[in-house]
Amino acid sequence: MTSLTRRTLMGGCAAGALLAVAGSTGARAATSTTASSTASDDAALQAAISDLSHPPATSAQLRVDRRGDGWYGTAGTADIDSGRPARPDDQFRAGSVTKAFVATVVLQLWAEGRVELDAPIGRYVPDLLPAAFARRITVAQLLNHTSGLPDHRGIPDDSTPEAVLRHRWDRWTPREWVETVTHDPLKFAPGTKQEYRGINYVLLALLIEKLTAHPYGQAIASRVLHPLGLTRTLLPGQDPRLHGPHVHGYLRMTDGSLRDVTVYNQSSAWGEGELVSTLDDLFRFQHALFSGALLPPHALDKLFTLPPDSVRMLDGSPARYSLGLQTATVNGMTFWGKTGETAGYRTRMFATRDLGLRFALSYTPTPLTTQEEMTNRVVAVLTA
Questions:
Q1: Residue 193 in contact with residue 311, Cβ under 8 Å?
Q2: How far is CA 311 from each of CA 139, 314, 318, 337, 338, rounded to the nearest angstrom?
Q3: Of 60, 188, 261, 357, which is most buried, counting CB atoms within 10 Å of its CB?
Q4: 32: pLDDT strictly greater than 50
Q5: pTM of the model
Q6: Banded model confidence at residue 39, pLDDT cuts 50, 70, 90
Q7: Residue 22: what are its φ and ψ, rounded to 5°?
Q8: What is the structure's pLDDT at 346?
Q9: DSSP string, 258-304
């Protein structure tokens, strides 16, 4: 039994054991795009996503590339009413994978000389944070989650599936959301510790809007989505629905019933977790980003640079977030990428820096919180 070493693929969690590959209930036919991908590896990957009991889930799909050898598999159903399988061009909610797109645009603007990473955020977006915060927290510290911003106050309790349903129509503006972290002192001196916080990227999205004079989603579209042909990826704003073919997300209520949570106003995740995408689009974005199609070399290096060793997570473990990505080392192999989760959806998008091995995993767990069992099974196969 092997463990995730030092850093986990799950943001903020302790390293967990890689679980043995489980059974294949609910499997759909997988397609191998090259003959050199071995049948045993294909079967193991299919088994890794086909156990829809650990964690309980209604669907899973996985795309893998191993130095040009591609594989795609799916399990379960995109919609339990119709029973149809998920497809790689089906939309789903990608959660915090949004942050990788935001970071890409901020680093583009830095490469263009339009923003300084070591400058205080208050230079660019004044009157959002208390002066003591705005003059101490830098753009880079927002990107790598070393800002020290305090916890939220006055936001809805979403600790139960019923509460999630109750608040899924809530509408927030970015400024209202930022206001919720302005009532207490900084948790630590900026740059001295690391704590993963979505609010950092809300501020960065507001920075993009200030520098480009366009909505941040429009800036991402013009700089990333359109050049790469990512026609099924978008930032939905106040639109709570997924349009066209998509994967449904579900939550198990405390009484055991299953509720569809696909329709959801994502305004509380504006700038940091509202992305709608597909497995195909995320795979294309991942390749373009790592290969340098979106960033010049000196900006690309920032994506793979962690804070100094003296900077630790709040639990004392090593920092694992760079200026836009997170990292994990498994069986001696170091991955970089991003996790994403929102009610009913989980996304994992990781690759080695040289793109020799990469994967994108999307699944739809029904518990409000889940362990990393499926991700660990996939990674165990890929790094064996």
A1: yes
A2: 17, 9, 7, 20, 20
A3: 60
A4: no
A5: 0.92
A6: confident
A7: -100, -170
A8: 98
A9: EEE--S---GGGTTTT-EEE-HHHHHHHHHHHHHTSSS-HHHHHHHT
Dihedral sign computed on CA atoms, order 147, 153, 154, 155: positive
CA atoms of 281 and 274, how far apart (whole Å): 15
The secondary structure of 109-148, three-state, reads HHHCCCCCCCCEHHHCCCCCCCHHHHCCCEHHHHHCCCCC
Residue 256, phi-psi category: left (phi > 0), alpha (psi -120 to 50), beta (remainder): left
CA torsion, ordered 304, 266, 62, 72, to nearest 10 deg? -110
Relative orientation angle of helices 98-111 and 279-291, to the nearest 10 degrees: 30
Query: Taking all residues of the chain, what is their mean pLDDT, rounded to a whole number?
Result: 91
Q: Which residue has the tokens 């940091």?
A: 272
Whole-number pLDDT of residue 10: 37
Helix, strand or coil, per DSSP, at residue 105 = helix
Tally of CB atoms within 10 A around 257? 9
Q: Quick one: pLDDT band at residue 40, thresholds 50, 70, 90?
A: confident
